[in-house]
Amino acid sequence: MKVKISLFALILGLFIVFPKESFSQVPENPEGKSNQESNEAKENDKVDQEENAEDPRWKKADIRVIGDKKDLKRIPGSATIIGKKYLDETRPMDGMEVLRRVPGASVRYQDPAGLTMNLGFRGVSNEVSRKILVLEDGLFTSLNPYGEPEMYYTPSIERMERIEVVKGSGSILFGPSTIGGVVNFITRKPPKDPTLSVQTIGGENRYVSSMINYGGTFGNTGFDINVLRKQGDGFRNHQGFWVNEANLKTIHQLNDKHSITTKLGFHQQESQSTYIGLTTGMFNHNPKDNPAENDLRTIERYSFSLGHEWTLSEKARVITRVYSAYTQRNWARQEYSRNSSRTSTKPSDTLNTFDGEPFSGRYGDTIWMRGTNAHRDRTYKFAGIETKLQYEFETASIKHELDTGIRYHYDSAKVQLLTGPRTYDAAIYPNGYGNTPVIAVESQTSLAKSGDLRDDEQRNAKAVSLYVQDRIRLTEKLSVIPGVRYESFTQSRLIMKGRQNFDQVSFNYTSGTNPTVQMDKEGKSTQQILLPGFGITYDLFSHFTWFSGVHRGFSPPRYESAISPTAQDLTLKAERSWNYETGVRGDVTNYLNMQLVGYFLDFQDQIINSSAAGGNLGARPVNAGRSQHKGIETNLTFDFGNFFQWNFNLPFDVIYSRNEAKSNQYTYNLEEWTKGNSNPLVHKDTNGNWLPYVSKDVITLAFGIIMKTGFYMRAEWQYFSKQYHDLQNTKTVYWYDTASLDNQVKSLLDYNDIKSDADGLTGMIPAYELVNASIGYKRNDWSLFLSGKNLMDRKYISTRLPEGIQPGLFRQINFGITFNL
């Protein structure tokens, strides 16, 4: 898809002519913060008082997960706030760069710009962030929250003023997909005075990011509009991208009792994103290589919300929100083959061959990119309405803070797959497709821009949610927080066209020619789930709190898991977890802030393949997976500047998490058993194995200098211990006899003393470390900054999913400038 400049300009013009609204967000708070912000308290006070501070009236229109100081103390679980000051001084390029600094977080990069978020917490799968709830200003950001909660659209970090993360019992107010936690990205509220802000960043790999903000308050109406354009060549070959965004927010105060908020958003993206990773040899020879030069993903997203706040009294208010979003995601991916065995042969329609030079004949180390492709075209819609009551009252001198609400939500997905035939250059095949070539010229072919409809489905989900939580203040220091959430949802899958030959026993499509047929079958699945939660907080002293809590998290099954390709209801339950934690948080002194948490997570009813569960042959989904996660998380900041009473801040951050996430299930390869394979190693017991893509130890050490003159400097070192790729904890797999290889070839297969298979699909993820730094100078109306990511230019494996080695981000140095008018 080409850049739709005319459409972008039209929407921008409409935004300017017809300003609509703004969700407000929580203001910066100097106290009760997590360690990322704790010692920046005085600076944040200054930020709040600058000319860009929001109108005080808009503070009532908060869309929040945590909130301000008093709200942070109310959270009966671990909570992290990443504030504007930290974002300004580090200038992250994507959200995952920031969030991997949160204790317990795990991230994976599968594209060069962080356009797809792969985020998890405490060992819960981070694959496209399916097991966490990601919000922007309190509203959904995933494609279909109750059917396909993938994060192929990710809020742009450039627009954010603040990020809130809750992993404990406080997440009972939100849903679905709260097993791993809740992340809320918060954008700017309308400023009090009319302000024009401009930010421009440029750097390596032809990276450019430019954003313009304009907003202000006029009478009883405040608005804020921003336009963002960023682009670059990516960190690997053939991975260019661009993003266009425009967002408008307004708040209108009708009178003392009523206010109206609206938010309108537009996001447009094109990227050479791919599923194909590198082989081991390719990674060692040139980790920036990329065989999928013809893959192309386009995304367009439109979002709208309308909110009404009714202040009944000083202690009661009712908030109602209507919201919707439309996302079109089209993805053309070129087909390919591998030389996976001795019998593999090069396809006749091969356009390009990629291998790990100079060892190009090894099995598994060659990828043949073919002259056909498939178009995965999808359209997602969702809409909903939510009303909630926040009410403070007393019973027998005991204070209560009640949160209760109800929501109706609707998801819709149109899913199509088009298979594209091979097309030929007219100069080579002058009479069209299928004729004998006049001139034999190598690789003079192109890929189809469309194709024949193979799969055609309509998927829907309807959900009703009710929740209530009461914070009961037994004393001024001690509070108990009981709560419960009820979810009822129905999923449907109407299969209009699909492949004819599907094996109900093995649960796989037959190989070879498999014709498309008209099916017109529909299946439905309905579930209800009750999610209790209970927490305790106790103020040990003024700004230091002990908290403890337990809650039930859940994640709905995806459409494809709940209903089979023949429209059969597989009667799956939602995935559920019991989450327990206890810890302390707050300011020990004016120079030491800390949070220390211990947790245990019992993750049950995981949806896995039946063969892995040992139930029956094939890949039929069943609720047989189970794992247990336990660990500690600590983050503290010691400010040497405050300790020695210097005239500047010298914060030192220590962030550490120890996560022991292990399988608690028995799995067997029954297919090999039925073949008569007597090798006992085939029947692998995964009970006690480490979960994939979880670093047992993650450490971040950061040091900063923050002068009152406006000069600042930050540097950080991050360490991530080794990870397993699969539940079998495979260390090395070879598709050939390693005894016949010479030592030089064997050495190539070893990466940091951890062996990998040749095709890169299986093996361990070695430990790696990153060094990041930033330096800048900030005045009231302008700033200059220089930031460096992965300054050691470490070449590391971020993931082997979906289909081979995806390198992590290489070194990136950016320079930028901001100014306000």
Automatic annotation (TrEMBL):
Residues 24-59, 334-356 are annotated as: Disordered. PANTHER family: FE(3+) DICITRATE TRANSPORT PROTEIN FECA, IRON III DICITRATE TRANSPORT PROTEIN FECA. Residues 39-59 have a biased composition (Basic and acidic residues). Keywords: Cell outer membrane, Membrane, Receptor, TonB box, Transmembrane, Transmembrane beta strand, Transport. This is TonB-dependent receptor. Pfam families: Plug, TonB_dep_Rec_b-barrel. Residues 24-38, 334-353 have a biased composition (Polar residues). Belongs to the TonB-dependent receptor family. It is a multi-pass membrane protein. GO terms for cellular component: cell outer membrane. It comes from the Bacteria. It is found in: Cell outer membrane. Residues 280-791 form the TonB-dependent receptor-like beta-barrel domain. GO terms for biological process: siderophore-iron import into cell.
